[in-house]
Design goal:
- The strands form three sheets. The protein has a nine-stranded mixed β-sheet with strand order 3-4-5-2-1-6-7-11-12, with helices on both faces. It has a six-stranded parallel β-sheet with strand order 15-14-13-16-17-18, sandwiched between helices. Strands 8-10-9 form a three-stranded antiparallel β-sheet.
- With 489 residues, the chain is of the alpha/beta class.
- The protein has 21 helices and 18 strands.
- α4 crosses α5, α5 packs across α9 and α13 crosses α16.
- The chain has two domains: 267 residues, Glycogen Phosphorylase B (Rossmann fold, 3-Layer(aba) Sandwich); 190 residues, Rossmann fold.
- A hairpin with a 2-residue loop joins β9 and β10.
- The structure holds adenosine-5'-diphosphate.
- The site of adenosine-5'-diphosphate has 18 residues, from α1, α16 and α17.
C-alpha cells in the first residue's frame, strides 16, 4: 500500500471537467491536482451523474461493486475510475439515484446524499483492497457530503482500517444545509437508535440537519475564505450555525480558494477567439471584446465600456441590486451582458431588460462554460455585488483575464479584491461596503469615470489584476498543514 504519502479521499458532489454547477466543481477539479503536485496522494470521489459527458464515461474502468446498507435498504454501488492530470477520480455508480436530469432539486435529495455519503464510507475498504488506496483523511465538501463524518464515527469506527481516519469538512456555502424531517433518521439514515447522532443532528420542531452533523462530527472544519470564516461566527451570516462554529472555533479556519491557472489562462484558452497576455492587451483583449460584441449582436465599437456578469441568478449574488439599478446602469454609455440561470423572477426580469434595451443589453439564459470564458476575456468590468459570498471565483477569473471586478465587500470578495485607491493608483478592482443599490451605482460611476477619463490608471489596474496570483499553491499548503496536524495525534 502507498504508505509513504498522506492519502486523502476528497468527497465532492461535483468536479470539473466532469460536472459543475458552481464554484464547488471548480475547487474539486483544481485543488486535488495541486495537492498531488505537493506530495499528497489525493483522490476524488464523485457520483456518476447522468450529465457527465460520454467522452469521460467511455474512458472509465470498473474497479468493483458492492451493496451499501442504508437503513432497511441495500443499494447497489459500482466504483469506476478515471485518471485526469495528476488526480485519480472514483465515480459512484447507482442509476436509481444519479441517472437523473437534474443534478440537485429532486424530492429525495436527502436520501440521494445519504446514499452518496454511505457509499463513500463503504468504498474505503474496497479501495484499500482493490486499488491500493489506504485512506488517512476524508475531506468532505458541503452538505451533500456532510453525513460522511457522522456515518464514519457511528457505523465504521469499530473496523480497524477505519480507526485512524480523520475527517476534514469544508463549507463552500452555508446557505445549503440539508434540513430534513426527523423521520429520515430511522427510515433513511438508520441512526434513530443512536442517541448521540439523534441529538447532534436534531434542529428542533421535528427536523434534522445534515450540515450540522458534519460540524459536530468532523475533526477539522474549514471554509473557503478567512473573511467568510469570521462572518460565519455571527448570526447575520451564520444561517443558524454560528453558535456551533463559535463553539468549535479552535478547529475552524478559513482558507482562500484559488483558481486553476492553467485552465483559466488567456494565453492558451481554446474557448477564446484570440489569445493574449499582459503585454498585448490592445491587440489581444480588444480583439476578444470585438468578437464578443459581434457574437452577442451588439455594436462592435470597442471604445464603449462593456460590463458583464456570469453568475447563478440568486439573491446571494446581489441580483436585487442589479434589478433595481438596471435602468440607471444602462442610462450610461455602456454595453452589458449577463450570462446566468437561476431563480425565475430574475430570469424573467433580465428578459424584460433585454427587450427594453436591445442595443445595449443582452441576457443569455443558459449555462455555457466556453461562452463564459469569452465574456471574462471580452468585458471591461465584472459585476459581483453579492449579499454574501463564501469565496467567489468569478472575480478571480475576471482578474485573470484582465477584467476589473466591482464587488461588495463580503466573504472572499473582501479577501481577494483590493479596491482602487485614487490617491496611490493601487488596486485590482472596485468595492463597496453596504448592501445598497445606490452604493453599487456610485461605485460603478467611479469605475465608469476612470474608464473614460483616465486610461493610464485603468490600464494600471488591469495590469495589477492580471498579476494577482490566485493559484492554488499557497492554499493547498494550508490544507496540507491541517492534514499533517490531524495525523500527528
Ligand atoms: P457559486 O459557486 O456561488 O456559484 P463562484 O463564483 O464561486 O459562485 O463560482 C461560479 C462558477 O460558475 C464560476 O466558474 C462561473 O464562471 C461559473 N458560472 C456561473 N454561472 C455560469 C453560467 N451560466 N455559465 C457558465 N459558467 C457559469
Amino acid at each position: 500500500m502507498s504508505k509513504e504519502k498522506v492519502n486523502v479521499l476528497f468527497a465532492s458532489f461535483e468536479a470539473t471537467p466532469f460536472i459543475k454547477t458552481g464554484g464547488l466543481g471548480d475547487v474539486a477539479g483544481a485543488l486535488p491536482n495541486t495537492l498531488n503536485s505537493q506530495g499528497i496522494n489525493c483522490r476524488v470521489i464523485v457520483p456518476k451523474l447522468k450529465a457527465i459527458p460520454d467522452e469521460f464515461k467511455n474512458k472509465m474502468t470498473h474497479i468493483t461493486s458492492f451493496y451499501v446498507p442504508l437503513s432497511w435498504r441495500n443499494e447497489f454501488c459500482g466504483i469506476e475510475k478515471l485518471t485526469m492530470g495528476k488526480t485519480i477520480y472514483y465515480f459512484i455508480d447507482n442509476e436509481y439515484y444519479f441517472k437523473r436530469g437534474e443534478i440537485y432539486g429532486s424530492f429525495d435529495d436527502g436520501e440521494r446524499m445519504a446514499y452518496y455519503c454511505k457509499a463513500v464510507c463503504e468504498s474505503i475498504q474496497y479501495l484499500a483492497k482493490y486499488d491500493d488506496f489506504d485512506c488517512d483523511i476524508i475531506h468532505a465538501n458541503d452538505w451533500h457530503a456532510s453525513l460522511i463524518p457522522v456515518f464514519l464515527r457511528e457505523f465504521y469506527r469499530q473496523i480497524p482500517l477505519y480507526q485512524k481516519i480523520k475527517t476534514v469538512f469544508t463549507i463552500h456555502n452555508i446557505k445549503y444545509q440539508g434540513q430534513m424531517s426527523d423521520a429520515v433518521l430511522s427510515d433513511v439514515l438508520g441512526l434513530a437508535h443512536i442517541k448521540a447522532a439523534r441529538e447532534q443532528l436534531y434542529r428542533g420542531k421535528g427536523t434534522i440537519n445534515f450540515l450540522q452533523g458534519a460540524l459536530y462530527y468532523s475533526d477539522w472544519i474549514t471554509t473557503v475564505s478567512p473573511n467568510y470564516a469570521s462572518e460565519l461566527k455571527n448570526s447575520f451570516y451564520g444561517e443558524g450555525m454560528d453558535g456551533i462554529l463559535r463553539q468549535r472555533s479552535d478547529i475552524f479556519s478559513g482558507i482562500l480558494n484559488g483558481i486553476d491557472n492553467d485552465y483559466f489562462n488567456p494565453e492558451t484558452d481554446k474557448n477564446l477567439t484570440c489569445n493574449y497576455n499582459i503585454q498585448d492587451l490592445i491587440s489581444g483583449k480588444k480583439k476578444c471584446k470585438e468578437d464578443l460584441l459581434k457574437e452577442v449582436g451588439l455594436d462592435t465599437n470597442t471604445d464603449i465600456m462593456l460590463v458583464a456578469m456570469v453568475s447563478r441568478l440568486t439573491e446571494q449574488k446581489g441580483m436585487d441590486l442589479i434589478m433595481r439599478m438596471m435602468d440607471e446602469l444602462l442610462y450610461h454609455n455602456i454595453h452589458m451582458i449577463i450570462l446566468g440561470v437561476g431563480d425565475k423572477n430574475y430570469e424573467m426580469g433580465l428578459k424584460y431588460f433585454d427587450y427594453k434595451h436591445p442595443d445595449k443589453f443582452k441576457y443569455f439564459q443558459k449555462f455555457d462554460e466556453g461562452f463564459s470564458h469569452r465574456i471574462y476575456a471580452g468585458a471591461d468590468l465584472f459585476l459581483m455585488p453579492s449579499k454574501f459570498e463564501p469565496c467567489g471565483l468569478g472575480q478571480m477569473i475576471a482578474m485573470r483575464y484582465g477584467t476589473l471586478p466591482l464587488v461588495r465587500e463580503t466573504g472572499g470578495l473582501k479577501d481577494s479584491v483590493n479596491p482602487y485607491n485614487q490617491y496611490t493608483g493601487e488596486g485590482n478592482g472596485f468595492s463597496f461596503a453596504n448592501f445598497n443599490a445606490h452604493d453599487m451605482l456610485f461605485k460603478f460611476k467611479e469605475a465608469y469615470t476612470l474608464y473614460y477619463d483616465n486610461k493610464p490608471a485603468w490600464r494600471k489596474l488591469i495590469e495589477s489584476a492580471m498579476k494577482t496570483d490566485f493559484g492554488w499553491e499557497k492554499s493547498a499548503g494550508e490544507y496540507i498543514k491541517i492534514y499533517n496536524h490531524l495525523l500527528s495525534y
